[in-house]
């Protein structure tokens, strides 16, 4: 078998293959180690097999190198297999651990699985022949689990981002006073993005100059003045409609804009910053600015996307505030504007209703999964479990499980109570 394995390896090398997976065999018995190695390489020469004879050597190698699969003998000298599996699972939590043992015991298997093992193989007969398929199966399982975790993390991040947006919207749309809106916006930006400074610049009439409307900072940093070239230079870029996009600058950047403002970055101890245009119906209103003075923060695509959405909401709030101010100023002398004032009051009332609805949805979203919310909406429409299952393309049994979970999570005893809860929380 060794000759066949060596020939397979030679063919793989000759054809330019590289070893894609690395397996660590932790086995004190050399005979068993060679059997497992030959079995693995006979299935695929693309596996790179490494060895360890005891617990200490295994943990040292895991810390030093990256492995795709660990094969652990349960009967290592000086350490129990359960203890080693638990330690390895902590060191490499996403790496499958397969335990091989002389003893075939359901109780032992359960202990090892609870310690962190992903599979279990008894050393009976030609056990090594089952190892390659077991490695492949556990690798695929680990990849699927990792992909699911990444998907879950993305969904969680998306949920957090939506919650941030809801908090910001409720904050700035709760007022029609421009100064109040600007103060709320800068305070929210500073807190939500944990930046060193946050400010909003607006373009003033009639000279069309960019001026600071509101700014807050941490750590007693020196405030900016309206004469700062940071904002005037960015304003010049924004005058070109094709260039109206967010701008990220690090202090050590070497492109033209960064060189032009470097003295300002140094003066205000800015390691990195981001600026986003404020646009309302295609008209440039101003900009948002955030910066970091302690580290050269890398502003991510998520940050830029959130700031762009926030800028859109702020531009709408400022436009509404400006319109409201005009109406308030002229309503005493122009009776025809009375109706417009009434409409603006309705806008405020609808904004409050939207805020209440958003808060209600947020509370429900925190408690329930996306699928549970879908099921709850269908229950509120009076559909039976069978009808819900058909509409959502799931089984009736799955629907019953979702309805049961909804009752438990919401502490509601009847289907009628679920319907009432959905209506009260605007899910109908």
Give a description of the structure.
There is one protein chain. The longest helix has 42 residues. The chain has a five-stranded parallel β-sheet, with helices on both faces. Strands 7-6-10-9-8 form a five-stranded antiparallel β-sheet, sandwiched between helices. The radius of gyration is 31 Å and the shape is flat. The N terminus is likely disordered. The protein has three domains: 143 residues, Rossmann fold (3-Layer(aba) Sandwich); 187 residues, 2-Layer Sandwich (Beta-Lactamase), CATH 3.30.450.40; 59 residues, Winged helix-like DNA-binding domain superfamily/Winged helix DNA-binding domain (Arc Repressor Mutant, subunit A, Orthogonal Bundle), CATH 1.10.10. It is α/β, with parallel strands linked by helices. The chain has 15 helices and ten strands.
Task: Looking at this protein, list some descriptive labels.
single chain, 428 residues, alpha/beta, Rossmann fold, Beta-Lactamase, Arc Repressor Mutant, subunit A, 15 helices, flat
Provide a compact summary of the structure.
By secondary structure, this protein is an alpha/beta fold. Helix content is 57%, strand content 15%. It has helices spanning 2-14, 30-43, 55-64, 81-91, 106-115, 131-172, 178-193, 229-238, 256-267, 301-330, 338-367, 370-380, 385-392, 396-410, 415-424, and strands spanning 21-26, 47-52, 69-73, 97-101, 119-122, 197-204, 209-217, 247-250, 272-280, 283-292.
- Summed up, the domain count is 3
* Proportion of strand residues: 15-25%
Percent of residues in helices:
55-70%
Largest sheet: 5 strands, parallel
Count of individual helical segments: 15
How many E-type strands? 10
CATH class of the largest domain: Alpha Beta
Strand pairing plus helix content: what structural class?
A: alpha/beta
Net shape: flat
Arithmetic mean pLDDT: 85
Order of helices and strands: HEHEHEHEHEHHEEHEHEEHHHHHH
Low-confidence stretches: 1-6, 8-17
Using the CA coordinates, give the radius of gyration: 31 Å
In the CATH hierarchy, the architecture of the largest domain is: 2-Layer Sandwich
Question: Quick one: CATH superfamily of the largest domain?
Answer: GAF domain
What is the strand arrangement across the widest sheet? 2-1-3-4-5
CATH topology of the largest domain: Beta-Lactamase
Q: Give the CA-CA distance, first to last residue.
A: 68 Å
